[in-house]
Amino acid sequence: MTAAAANGQKKLIALTFDDGPGPYTNRLLDGLAERNVHATFFELGMRAEEYDQTTRRIYAEGHQVAQHGYDHPTLTTQSDEKVRWQIDHTRDILNEILGQDFTYYVRPPYGDCNSRVLSLLNAPAIFWSVDPVDWRDRNADTVRDRIVSNAYDGAIILCHDIYSTTVDGALMAIDTLKAEGYEFVTVNELFRRRGVTPQDGDRYSSCKPTGTQTEAVSAPTVSAELIDGRMKVKLTADPGAAIYYTLDGSEPAFYGTRYTEPFSYPAEATLKACAAYDLNGSRSETITKKLDTLGIDPTVCVQDGKLVFTNQNENAGVYYTTDGTEPTTNSRCYTVPFACYDGVLRFCALGENVSTATQTIYVTAKGNLFWDVPNTSWYFHNVDTAVALGIFNGTGTYRFEPDTGLTRAMFVTTLYRLVKEKGMDVSIKGAASFSDVPAGQWYTDAAMWASENGVVLGYEDGTFRPERSISREEMCAILDRLLMLLEVKTEGAPMSFADAGSISDWAKDSVARMSACGLIKGQGNNCFAPKATSTRAEAATVLLRIYDLIG
Ligand code: ZN
Predict the structure, then answer these.
(1) Residue 127 CB partners (closer than 8 Å, separation 6+)
(2) Any idea what the Cα angle at residue 143 is, between residues 47 and 69, rounded to 5°?
(3) Which are the catalytic amino acids?
(4) How far is ligand 1, taken at its centre, from the CA of residue 332, in Å?
């Protein structure tokens, strides 16, 4: 198992197809749909005009549409005006076909590019890192073997869907690589999942693990609320994702209205909805729901170590499962509170004309409930323990946001709580502190305590920068000073990280000590990733280790 997999992070890979669409593209799309795999298509404008229905299908099925110029020119030999025409004209054709107003990632034909061309694209330039040379060697087995043997986590693979042999070879490669644990994503998703935002005029050819990784886009959940005596539909999605919906049965990725607030609905309406960070290549599957069967979501809470449901639906009961399966009227029906346990809880209200969306929540024997801390994740027990000890709080009702980056304010607050929990003196003298830490904020006491005790030094200009995310090397420096304050002895050992050279000078000794005593471990590939942002799940793990270390 690789370190990335050990961290609960999937290996991601992006298949890309250039020069189409063509006569074999539909067969490729069938194969991708069978395998539930998404890819990116760098289309030529002239082919998109000819294969407009295929282009609509590519987009409808959740792949990313990107562009490759109008007729496959060498861009560096063209005038500024002609380069712009190739890009702008193709963008207009694609927008006309899709009925959208997108800009599209560009792949310069032949990879032929220079700084002048880059500055004219008004889009990120996407190259590749694996090239099976499928245009030259028209043999499906060869194409498969080259993709499989050169694949790695974060690779972007160059293929051409205008060759029948490539369609076969790519589909075979997908089967092999999926069995090796790879998840196929669009280029857009590859970067989004790893916290990278491609910039217009910059070139990209891969996206290796960055130390942070978010999940795939979840489909929105549908619930109902009684607002001023009227039943209204409420849609919920992952933080930061937009929701698009239609009520006439049409496809929301094409015709959707952006959801802003709960809405009332006509009788017998059918809702279709998807969640998206970007409709083009970064969206969830589309859900369909007949709204006249919509009930009010039951809720669950913990009282005296037992799970208690609240149900406002008349003529409907709460049905639940604890084995991860979808609840039905054959599942257990809730009657009395029952004990918490480590595992998953799925529940909904079912009855005559009522069926609410199934909710999935993770329950812990310690009495915590989480929407977003799966019991299969590597951090489940760490987060559970840290929250149960009171040294790390959630961010909302049953939300922990494990993949969200940790800010400096959050980090010193957790240290402050931990030291307090250990019964140590955390009184504050109240001397002038950082210039950007006003009185009365949730982190004010923690920041002042950290400053007065030399745990946090702040920046040269006297600021603390509470909202800034904390990097792994900064975390080491702060922990090192905390342990010194607590008189816990740590010894450095020579570091063997492959990226030791990229650790800032001021952090080198701290990283050596913190990694030697096992507080902050490397990230796999024998890398420390000093500049990567620490996630909340990682921080909970580190805090638990300190909690044990300081006894
Ligand atoms: Zn090409």
Answers:
(1) 107, 111, 156, 203, 204, 205
(2) 25
(3) 18, 160
(4) 57
Q: How far is the CA of 179 from the centre of ligand 1 (A)?
A: 29
Q: Which of 451, 455, 498 is nearest to 479 (CA)?
A: 455
Identify the CA nearest to 281 among candidates 190, 173, 210, 194.
190
- How many helices and strands in the chain, by DSSP H and E? 16, 23
d(CA 85, CA 71): 11
- The burial of 251, by beta-carbon neighbours within 10 Å (0-12 exposed, 13-18 middle, 19 or more buried), is given as middle
d(CA 246, CA 274): 10
Quote the distance between the C-alpha of residue 382 and its chain's center: 20
Give residue 528's Cα distance to chain centre: 21
Q: Torsions phi, psi of 162, nearest 5?
A: -90, 5
Q: Looking at this protein, which amino acid is placed at residue 472?
A: R
State which H helix or E strand residue 434 sits in.
none
- What is the whole-number distance in angstroms between the Cα of residue 72 and the centre of ligand 1? 6
CA distance 190 to 216: 10
Distance 210 CA to ligand 1 centre (A): 29
Q: How far is the CA of 283 from the centre of ligand 1 (A)?
A: 26
Element (H, E) at 86: helix 80-98
Q: How far apart are CA 320 and CA 458, in angstroms?
A: 50
Q: What separation in Å is there between the alpha carbon of 58 and the centre of ligand 1?
A: 18
Is residue 246 within 8 Å of 252, Cβ to Cβ? yes
Look at strands 11-18 and 40-43 and give their pairing.
Answer: parallel
Q: Please give the chain's pLDDT, 551 residues, in tens.
A: 334 443 456 899 999 999 999 999 999 999 999 999 999 999 999 999 999 999 999 999 999 999 999 999 999 999 999 999 999 999 999 999 999 999 999 999 999 999 999 999 999 999 999 999 999 999 999 999 999 999 999 999 999 999 999 999 999 999 999 999 999 999 999 999 999 999 999 999 999 998 888 999 999 999 887 776 667 899 999 989 999 999 998 999 999 999 999 988 877 789 999 999 999 999 999 999 888 777 888 999 999 999 999 998 888 899 999 999 989 999 999 999 999 999 999 999 998 778 888 889 999 999 999 999 999 898 999 999 999 988 888 877 888 999 888 889 989 998 998 888 888 888 888 766 788 888 888 899 999 999 888 898 888 888 999 988 898 999 999 999 998 888 888 877 777 888 888 999 999 999 999 988 888 888 777 888 898 888 899 899 998 888 888 77
pTM higher than 0.85, yes or no? no
Query: Separation of 547 CA from ligand 1 center, angstroms?
Result: 56
Ligand 1 mean position to 404 CA, how many Å? Answer: 38
Rounded to whole angstroms, how far apart are CA atoms 349 and 215? Answer: 27
Distance (Å, rounded) from C-alpha 24 to C-alpha 530? 46
State the DSSP code for 292: G
359-363 and 338-339 strand pairing: unpaired
Of 140, 148, 147, 146, nearest to 166 by C-alpha is 140
Three-state secondary-structure class, residue 103: coil
Place of tokens 């969306």: 357
